[in-house]
Design goal:
Its main location: membrane. It is found in: Endomembrane system. Keywords: ATP-binding, Membrane, Nucleotide-binding, Peptide transport, Protein transport, Translocase, Transmembrane, Transmembrane helix, Transport. By secondary structure, this protein is of the alpha/beta class. The chain has three domains: about 130 residues, no CATH class; about 160 residues, ABC transporter transmembrane region fold; about 250 residues, P-loop containing nucleotide triphosphate hydrolases (Rossmann fold), CATH 3.40.50.300. The chain has 26 helices and ten strands. Strands 6-7-8-3-9-10 form a six-stranded mixed beta sheet, sandwiched between helices. A four-stranded antiparallel beta sheet has the order 2-1-4-5, with helices on one face. Helix 11 packs antiparallel against helix 12. The structure holds adenosine-5'-triphosphate (ATP). The site of adenosine-5'-triphosphate (ATP) has 11 residues, from helix 17.
């Protein structure tokens, strides 16, 4: 077992010893006359020793950040001296009585002491329980203490950043909250005055005044609450919209490798579900929290004016509530993060199934996919159950502690009235305040964990917002004229970023695309042809060597400029569920009609588009599902040509076309457009028309030259041509077989 995992046990053992030593000092004859002093001195020594112990341990306190750890030490060491001092101020049992509460004889004699001591011991027990839970969970996990994440801005500060533009609105909301809370919180005070009048029957105008003020306050308070709610909801909705927009933008700006390792369903879930949950909870629960905090302040003010002693007693129960709420809040925050991940996984299964519904149906795997989805939902259900248990326990403990507080205050208030320290009206007002106080504490306790859960959900969105895309900074070049001369110079590339030779997809690749000429890139499957295209599009960065465009490094060009000058048509081209016209002009604005027709004619697409029910306004369907594969490719070629690119990349762009259409398209491309073309094709009769041919094999350039030159060499290229004609013959033979 590691020393770090032994630390929690060591810590607890040491703490118990320290408590016993102070206990001994307490009961010793020498210290009895100065019990409070001894208690304070003992606690300071204990706190110092624990702090030194915590500092000397390399991994810090188990499952706590350093500041949380020191807070816990402070609570653990000083809550008892503080309680004892407060009790002494209230004229209640002595420190010795509290220490000796477990002795039944004393408990039987001092009933009140038991009630008050319960407050102390329950707090002590919860503090100890909290430390134990954290220690045990650290032991079970056998993992080193979780260090707070370095370099990330805390989610609350991030949320504050989004509220900054609306600060004046929040200031208005706060003002209205304060006005409304004052109105509400002044009510019990006037009720007390009415009660005094009922009991004494003196000064009849006091009754009328109190009733009038109460009526006015009710109206004013309700009105300001209405305006405040409206303003708050509208503002939080705007913030929510901004966050969602920014998260979407941040996702789009990530490099391609980011999308390779994440599934679309998960990303959609993080953009929608996480931000939705965050916004829902923040708009509701934050508003509750704001209301109750403001009420709290007025409550304390009014309670203080009634009886400071009873207020002190009420306050003594608060640490228990705080510990419970904090524990529940931490728990709910971590549960919420797990829930977001689990929901994202379930969403991913649904998104994947619906987007590949044809494959699912053709393999009759509807039941299999349902089972997979059910599996993910089961996981979500398990986490939901955990969340419900945490919520129920939190509710139960908050109700219990507020009930205990009420009983204590009633008992102590009764004593004060019989002693004549406070009037009956003051007691009535105080009890009413106490009820409000309990409900405020209860609400804060239930809202706080939910706010923490919202913060947990927000963290997922902030993770994406904070992520710096792993692409070099945008370049500065955007020359007026671009010749289109491309050079791959000793390029080596691996998708996994591992630098050993086995992981390299391209190894020391060098070739040139001459301006205005057609260069074909050929090779067997997985030889690295499409990877060259991805590097040209700057989706990935080579680990060694470089790509030059007109003699300048590719990364020095502005991204927007580069993608205007380079147009790519790939085999698996994607159309959007929009009219064909919009698919052709995708990413361009105000394109004249004749430009669209010119591009479509060059791509041999104009005739079939005109025959569609709505011509250029016909919808292409989801992923281009309402047009055939060949039609889809021709629309994609038109989309590339309308940009009048300097470099046109055709990556198996005509693979779905019949020979006649392929001939027409290639003839138009080769003869009518004047740009650099990089052609990747399996059809060797098309490849042989290229001005220059580069043969790739196992990520290296095997040979290059014109068709005639390569055929005379009789090496890799000849082999490729022969293989194509061989498969053709075999097909013929198969067809002739009886
Ligand atoms: N996104 C990716 N992540 C990891 N590896 C990849 C990725 N894309 C391609 N590869 C790997 O890179 C190698 C080259 O793939 P590439 O698509 O460049 O080959 P190709 O010559 O275009 O093949 P084909 O003729 O079959 O289309 C393959 O082994 C492939 O598995």
């Amino acid at each position: 077992m590691q020393t770090t995992s032994l630390f929690p046990l060591f810590f607890l053992g040491f703490d118990v010893c320290a408590v016993q030593v102070i206990h001994l000092a307490q009961v010793s004859l020498l210290s009895t006359p100065h019990s409070l002093v001894t208690l304070w001195v003992g606690s300071v020594i204990r706190a110092c020793l624990l702090a030194v112990l915590a500092l000397r341990c390399p991994s810090g306190l188990p499952r706590m950040s350093r500041s949380e750890g020191f807070q816990s030490i402070l609570v653990l060491c000083f809550h008892f001296p503080v309680y004892a001092t407060l009790l002494a101020a209230l004229g209640q049992p002595t420190v010795e009585q509290l220490w000796g509460w477990h002795r039944w004889d004393r408990v039987c004699h001092v009933y009140a002491t038991t009630l008050l001591a319960w407050l102390y011991w329950s707090h002590y027990a919860s503090a100890l329980l909290l430390s134990c839970c954290k220690a045990i969970s650290a032991l079970l996990r056998r993992a080193p203490a979780e260090e707070p994440k370095a370099g990330t801005t805390p989610p609350l500060r991030r949320l504050y950043h989004f509220t900054r533009p609306y600060l004046w609105r929040f200031a208005g909301v706060l003002l209205l909250v304060i006005l409304s809370s004052y109105g509400e919180m002044a009510m019990p005070h006037y009720t007390g005055r009415v009660a005094d009048w009922i009991m004494n029957k003196e000064a009849p105008e006091a009754f009328t005044n109190a009733i009038t003020v109460m009526a006015l306050l009710t109206i004013a308070s309700a009105l300001s609450e209405l305006v405040c709610d409206l303003m708050y909801t509208i503002t939080t909705t705007r913030i929510y919209r901004t966050v969602q927009e920014l998260v979407f933008e941040a996702v789009l700006k990530q490099e391609l490798a980011f999308f390779d390792s994440r599934k679309p369903g998960e990303l959609v879930s993080h953009i929608t579900t996480s931000t939705n949950r965050m916004s829902e909870i923040l708009s509701q629960e934050m508003s509750y929290l704001m209301w109750y905090v403001s009420r709290f302040v007025f409550l304390i003010f009014f309670m203080l004016t009634q009886s400071w002693k009873m207020l002190l007693l009420t306050w003594m129960g608060l640490p228990i509530c705080w510990v419970v709420a904090k524990f529940a809040g931490n728990f709910q925050e971590s549960i919420s993060k797990r829930l977001q991940d689990s929901l994202a996984e379930a969403n991913q299964v649904a998104t994947e199934t619906f987007s590949h519904i044809k494959t699912v149906k053709s393999f009759a795997n509807e039941d299999g996919e349902t089972e997979r989805y059910r599996g993910r939902l089961d996981n979500t259900y398990r986490i939901n159950k955990l969340e419900s248990v945490a919520y129920a326990v939190n509710m139960w403990s908050s109700t219990l502690s507020s009930l205990a507080m009420k009983v204590c205050v009633l008992y102590y208030g009764g004593i004060l009235v019989t002693r004549g320290d406070v009037s009956s009206g003051d007691l009535v007002s105080f009890i009413l305040y106490e009820l409000q106080f309990s409900s405020a504490v209860e609400s804060v306790m239930t809202s706080y964990p939910k706010v923490r859960a919202a913060i947990g959900a927000a963290e997922k969105s902030f993770e994406i917002l904070d992520r710096k895309p792993n692409v070099p900074a945008d370049g500065h070049l955007c020359p007026q004229h671009l010749k289109g001369c491309v050079e791959f110079r000793n390029v080596s590339f691996s998708y996994s970023e591992k630098t050993d030779q086995n992981h390299f997809v391209l190894k020391d690749v060098s070739f040139k695309l001459n301006p205005g000429r057609i260069t074909a890139l050929v090779g067997r499957n997985s030889s690295g042809k499409s990877t060259c295209v991805k590097l040209l599009e700057r989706f990935y960065q080579p680990q060694a060597g470089g790509i030059l465009l007109d003699g300048q490094p590719l990364q020095d060009y502005k991204d927007q400029y580069l993608h205007q000058k380079i147009a790519v048509v790939s085999q698996d081209c994607v159309l959007f569920a929009r009219p064909i016209r919009e698919n052709i002009t995708y990413g361009l604005e105000d394109v004249p009609e004749d430009e669209i027709y010119r591009a479509a004619k060059l791509a041999s697409a104009h005739d079939f588009i005109m025959k569609l029910p709505n011509g250029y306004d016909t919808d292409a369907g989801e992923g281009g599902g309402q047009v055939s594969g060949g039609q889809k490719q021709r629309i994609a070629i038109a989309r590339a040509l309308i940009r009048r690119p300097t470099l046109l990349i055709l990556d198996c762009a005509t693979s779905d076309l019949d020979s006649h259409t392929e001939y027409l398209v290639n003839q138009a491309l080769f003869e009518q457009i004047n740009c650099t073309v990089l052609l990747i094709s399996r059809n060797m009769s098309v490849v042989e028309k290229a001005d220059h041919i580069v043969v790739l094999g196992d990520g290296t350039v095997k040979e290059e030259g014109s068709h005639a030159e390569l055929m005379t060499k009789g090496s890799f290229y000849t082999e490729l041509v022969k293989t194509e004609s061989k498969s053709f013959h075999r097909q013929e033979k198969d067809e002739n077989d009886p």
